[in-house]
Amino acid sequence: MKFAVFGAGGVGGYLGARLADVGHEVHLIARGEHLDALRSSGLRVESVAGDTTVDCPATDDPADIGHCDYVLFCVKSYDTREAAADLDPLLGADTAVVSFQNGVDNEAWLADEIGDEHVAGGVAYIFSTIKEPGVVEHTGGPARFVFGELDGERTARIEALDEALSAAEGIEAVLAEDVRVELWRKFCLICAQAGMTATTRLPLGEIRETEASWEMYRRLMGEVSAVARAEGVDLPESVVDEWSEFVQGLDSEMYSSLHYDLTHGKRLELDALHGSVVRHAATVDVDVPMNEAVHAILRPWADRTVE
């Protein structure tokens, strides 16, 4: 099958390389020095699940690629609307654009631009980043990718994607019964991990060991889950306890991509994380004081780095 990876960074680059390894036609969309390196030396993945190097066509112009069976959409959330406007050359009648991004708004933003019929949802559980131009480093996480049609239908195209991802080495593919539940489930964890590591500038271990900070971590998750249920998402009441138990087993030195971006002067995904929680909460009349606090603390920093 023919894939375009829109945003061939840590997540997109990993997916693209694994799919290319099993024989699919993969086109990478990137920019800057990373694009230059992809064109000159190919894409190298350094992974705890096994290294690989692939030579895939790379471009910054979707018109170079043409219609695809799937577009794996992996740009930062603040680039979603701009990138969505460039998708048209990639779209055939049944092309699925599968978002593997942080947040719960990206699918709606995509649908606004290209129509509901092209959009599918996805969740990535993987720790991977661009180590240097042309090199993606996968340091941990299950490399678990959960995805599905937004209406829950088991379409031929989503089942074919499941088969393709399941056949790729180093990928745990999960076809979700209700991908909206999975999007909000991960959103609970992201908002807590990102919010606490970014505001304290400290790693997970110190947050876990500090009673007040750990309580805030759990309250951040609880607020997000309450908003989800108020919006009609069938998120289980147990989600906070489940994630809390999971987080106890994570590396004590773990931070978050939000912390990395904050401490490296990069643009923040705050609007897609805690800003989104605050917006959604207002529409369903749910109180989210912990998420409001994180948003207020980081808002000046986010405004500093808007490009």
Key words describing this protein structure:
single chain, 307 residues, alpha/beta, Rossmann fold, 2 domains, 12 helices, 22% strand
Rg from C-alpha positions?
19 Å
Give the overall shape. globular
Say what oligomer this is: single chain
- What CATH architecture of the largest domain do you see? 3-Layer(aba) Sandwich
Please, what is the average pLDDT?
97
DSSP helical segment count: 12
User: How many β strands by DSSP?
Assistant: 10
Our estimate of the beta-strand percent is: 15-25%
CATH homologous superfamily placement of the largest domain: NAD(P)-binding Rossmann-like Domain
CATH topology of the largest domain: Rossmann fold
Main sheet properties: 10 strands, mixed
Task: Please summarize what this structure is.
With 307 residues, this protein is α/β, with parallel strands linked by helices. Helices cover 45% and strands 22% of the residues. The chain has two domains: 2-177, 3-Layer(aba) Sandwich (Rossmann fold); 181-304, N-(1-d-carboxylethyl)-l-norvaline Dehydrogenase, domain 2.
Describe this structure in words.
- There is one protein chain.
- The chain starts with a strand and ends with a helix.
- The chain is built from twelve helices and ten strands.
- It is of the alpha/beta class.
- It folds into two domains: 2-177, NAD(P)-binding Rossmann-like Domain (Rossmann fold, 3-Layer(aba) Sandwich), CATH 3.40.50; 181-304, N-(1-d-carboxylethyl)-l-norvaline Dehydrogenase, domain 2, CATH 1.10.1040.10.
- The model has no long low-confidence stretch (mean pLDDT 97).
- Helix 4 links the parallel strand 7 (91-100) and strand 8 (119-132).
- Helix 6 packs parallel to helix 10 (257-263), helix 8 (211-230) runs antiparallel to helix 9 and helix 11 packs across helix 12.
- 45% of the residues lie in helices and 22% in strands.
